[in-house]
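Hey, I'm writing a tutorial for new members on how sequence and structure tokens pair up, and I'd like a real worked example in the thread rather than a made-up one. If someone can provide the structure for the chain below, I'll link this post from the tutorial.
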Amino acid sequence: MRWGRVLAASLVLLVCFSSAHAAGLRLSWEECPEGNGQTLKQSSCNAQFAIESLVSSMELSAPVDSVIGMEIVIDLVSDSATLPDWWRYEPGGCNAGTMSASGDFSALGACGIPWNSTATGLVQAWWGGQPRGGANQARLIFTVFVSPTQKVSLDAATPYYAGIVRLTHSRSSGANACAGCTVPVCLVLNSVQLLRLPGASVEAVQVVNSGGTGNWASWQGTTADCNLVPVRNRTWGAIKSSYR
């Protein structure tokens, strides 16, 4: 995790070295859309050893070279007045410790695989009440990254994997269950930040969605309103300052 700490610390230094690209962002369950990943996932919530995989992917509007990491922002809103306990992943929350991030796509393959699936995934933050201050909202930030010697170039118009979020059902049922697994939730992939080698002319490229709803995914139904957490035109500096 030493490299993870170094990368996490270096993220703050990228405030003045970022640009934005509009492109296609997609969010789906189990696979990217090219591999028949689904935008709706339903579960009985009674299989304690089951694992759900939420896959983020993207297409760039222009090539980007020297990429060594990605920071991924996913916002969610539940179809309930407050966020269910099952979605309380913050420290001390009912489901804390049951979510993980991954940059290993070796079991998939329908989209382009950056870094040959050697990237490390790390959940950076789970922030309840964001992005719009709603009691039924939350924001997830996670990163995938490699060492500088493993830098890659990403092409335009090629669908690439960005990262995987894995949710376990260890607290979906039984004595230690967290209530609310069956409540419908909408998740929105709001941005993917491409992190480049330190010293590059632009050290971070923010990829935001160019339109459409391909960056939406639903859990347990489609009644949660994704429009309550749309992409906001926030700068990289504004996003990072919220987590200092």
